[in-house]
Amino acid sequence: MVLDKGLSVLSQYGMEAKNTYRGRGALLVQTEEGLYLIQEFRGSKRRLEKQNELLENIEAAGYAPVDKALRNQEGSLVSLDADGAPYMVRQWMEGRECDTRSREDILQGVRTLAKLHNVMYLPTEQEDVRQPLQEEYMRHNREFRKIHQYIRQRRLKSDFENLFLASVKEYEEYGREAAQRLGQSRYPQLKEYVTGQGAVCHGECSQHNFMVTKADMALVHFDHWCYDLQIADLAYYMRKILEKQNWDLKFGMRLMEEYDRIKPFERGEDYNLLVRLSYPEKYWKLVNHYYNQNKALPLAKDRDKMKRILDQTAAWRFFVKKSFSNFLFK
Question: What are the sequence ranges of the domains in the chain?
Answer without folding.
Answer: 2-92, 103-325
